Amino acid sequence: MTKHAELAHLFRAMKAPAAARAVDNLADRAREEEWSYERFAEALLSTEISSRESSGGRLRIRAARFPAHKTLEEFDFTFQRSVKKQVIEHLGQLDFLHAKQNVILLGPPGTGKTHISIALGIRACLAGQRVLFRTATEWVALLADAQRQDKLDAELDRLERIPLLICDEVGYIPFDPQAASLMFMLVSRRYERASMIVTSNKPFSAWGEIFGDDMAATAMVDRLIHHAEILSLKGDSYRLKDRELGPRPSRATAAG
Description:
The chain has helices at 3-13, 17-33, 37-64, 85-91, 95-98, 113-126, 136-148, 152-160, 177-190, 207-211, 214-226, 251-255; strands spanning 102-106, 131-135, 164-170, 195-200, 228-232.
């Protein structure tokens, strides 16, 4: 058994497979470039740590249940000009997450709200943070199920320990009073304790209609925006930009 093989065996025994795989190449390079013992050890350990962080990031991304894989680098700022690239890149540094602040994305369907929310969530996962993604109706269903099992408080406690929750598509389906109450509890429990990213196709002025209660909607919005970055996206749907929809009907045709 060579010295390299002995090291590889020891690393595998320590459950450090990336270092075990890299030891031969790094040892040869260290010898050729006359590395110090300290530099060689640092290179091996850095290889293992990088591998673990990458693997952990993939696991966190999978656990978050994103509907698709989107990155900030893929976002088309040439099409979506209502939001500044510098603002999104700053959000990508995740300062809002460390400060336990929120991000609110408002705008019509197809303007990039969900893309940005997923991309920020993936950045958080890769940075070692746990994230959960659900639509607003899915969050309500999750909490309603916990309530039926008399486990609502425990579920809210569990969710409070997750640094970032993403609530997509607020406003696409109106809430009944019970659903509105559950959503309010989720927002209230996270207020100043952990971050949320919320997307909505409705302005805040219309949230009273969504939740069926102006006072509840106002209280929810107040907690969401108190410490928040609010972005208003405008324009046509990105999903329809390459489709030929034909001429718009005239008013007379539409009326007929």
